[in-house]
Amino acid sequence: MERTVKPPARARALRVRACAKINLGLEVLGVRRDGYHELRTLFQTIDLHDDVVIRTRPRGLVVRCDHPGVPGDEHNLALRAALELQRHAGIARGAEIAITKRIPVGGGLGGGSSDAAAVLLALDRLWGVGLGPAGLHPLARRLGADVPFFLVGGTALGLARGDEVYPLHRQVRGHTVVIDLGRPVSTPAVFARVDQSLTPRENSNRIFRFVSSDLEGLRAFSILANDLERAALEEAPDLTDQVGRIRGILIQEGAALASLSGSGSAFFGLFDDGRRAQGAQSALRAAGFSVLRAQTVSLNQYRRMWARSLGTRRARGLGNQSRSRHHGNHGRQGHPGRG
Ligand code: ATP
After folding, report:
1. Which of 59, 244, 260, 273 is positioned for an S-S bond with 229, CB 3.0–4.6 A?
2. What percent of the chain lies above the pLDDT cut of 90?
3. Which residues have CB under 8 Å from 322's CB, separation 6+?
């Protein structure tokens, strides 16, 4: 059964931006009964993005992507997202998805997950399904642990597998430099290494301390860390030397935070000041690294971006706490910048 929510007049295609994320902090608390890891993480969207064009067609699902490392078949997470929505809503119509990749692949920047969430939001609109972000949450969850976050965006706390998402009241605003080490690191392999050295850490509370901290400016970020970094470097030991040099340069250039994103291999620096970020970019480029610059995207900016993309006055329920417990506004947060 197809639900009847009026699609935008004559809209047959949408061009949307699928933003990358960084993990400002990540704690691995243990292994759950279902085999997944219990995580506590602080997600942050940034304006580095893939371009995704979604077109309806009478039948069938097709995906095209300009990146050789990204599958052009049903292994593509964006196509799986379309399939999931099609099945869930009993939709007979099809879609064509074209992805221009800008987010480094396999970098821990959530590119595939963001593409998938973008397709869910766009097809929900184009096919007139009308689930909205909260209604899409269970589908996103089945696609991958990072996908639900991209239905929300901004600065958010991720609990459980990272798929319980709570937007924070105080949103981080800052400038980032993202270093693409040009080498994908397998997320399952990193978690397998974490398991070998995992001790129960339910009491780890750096992220909660950060969230409830009243510290303004740069100081709040110094307590954050990524628990996956050591395992990622064990998995990719050839990167250890580069990561050491990158961190040194970022700190020297005044980064509030210098960290691996997710399970890597992308590394990032967070700055409160665009000039500092630019200085870091120049220094890293001079040292031979491939560097991208991006700004944080706050919850409201993310909502507005989606409202524009979907042609709604405001993206209905995007990050709206009233729709789901996964979309509540929680906590407070140290603020890196004045932006
Ligand atoms: P994860 O931690 O989920 O592995 P990541 O952020 O490290 O994600 P992605 O860029 O999402 O890295 O890609 C991870 C893997 O997913 C790659 O092997 C890639 O081929 C595959 N993949 C499937 N669909 C996509 C997509 N739309 N964009 C990017 N990668 C995709």
Report:
1. 260
2. 71
3. none
